[in-house]
Amino acid sequence: MSTPGEVKKAISNPFGPPKEPLPLPENDEILTKNALKVFDETPNPRHKFIFQNLVRHLHAFVKETDISTEEWMATIQFLTETGQKCTSIRQEFILLSDVLGVSALVDAINNPSVAGATETSVFGPFYTEDAHDVPFGESIASEGKGDYMLVKGRVLDVQGQPVPNATIETWETDGFGFYDTQYVNREVPDCRGRLQSDKDGYYQYRAIVPVSYPIPGDGPVGKMLELVHRHNNRPAHLHVMIEAPGYHKLITAVYPEGDPYVTSDTVFGVKKSLVVKLDILESDEEIKKYGFKHGPVKVLNQDFILLTEQQAAEARSKVTEANILKDTTFF
């Protein structure tokens, strides 16, 4: 027998067969039971719960759709291409989660609405960690990126008290509907910035009027939307993320009213309370006062109301208690 060539040897992990032999499957029901049974010895109960439910629902999906081998292989290829499309500044898997409504659902479950607090919205795939620090009242956008907009307001708690020195990260597309990361010649961050609320919770910065835009259609997710005849547009919005010691991180967005896609956001991110009205600076004096070169200038007056960590945890626990499965028995 000839000696095999050089190979990269696979190494067995330290775990042996299940304590009880699995029955050889004579039908698909036994196969599903076996696939659930092999997770019985998972030491972490939460891991066991998640993976057994994942198997249960995946197997149910396969059975309910009577999926063909060719269709399943196409699914695997689709997921492979989704991963291959990801880069350090593009997350195609987040995009897939978004258009299936999963991101919005996870967000809703983990951030239940609390009276008086600002509601959350989807994070989206275009956040970056390299935003510049922006002084109070300065601009997050370079000149020529779109129509001027002044953004100002306060960061408060649910009792109406100011939250000083809160870190506010904000990002948006330019007036052409592109995030800076979509430009191949991107050298520095643009239309995004990081700033602080002052001692009384006030914040203020210059931005541009957001516009609706299509999410990237040059990858697997875009092809999927075309396959099912779904539009790939998001309504105009401004992303905001706020953190402060002792407070629950707020990830949200605001959506100017009147956008044609506000009721059919392709990633299901819009909530009624997040649809906002833009005002306008009337006088040249006001325009120059806020640091703009000329008009017109739209104005977004928006207070953001934070929950404390304790308040957020209490709200989340109520949802968890309400959603506890009555039957947690596994095969």
UniProtKB/TrEMBL annotation:
Q: Where is this region: Disordered?
A: 1-23
- Please state every residue range assigned to the domain named Catechol dioxygenase N-terminal: 44-118
Q: Which residues form the Intradiol ring-cleavage dioxygenases domain?
A: 142-292
* Pfam families listed in its UniProt record: Dioxygenase_C, Dioxygenase_N
Swiss-Prot/TrEMBL cofactor(s): Fe(3+)
Family label: Belongs to the intradiol ring-cleavage dioxygenase family.
This protein's name: Uncharacterized protein
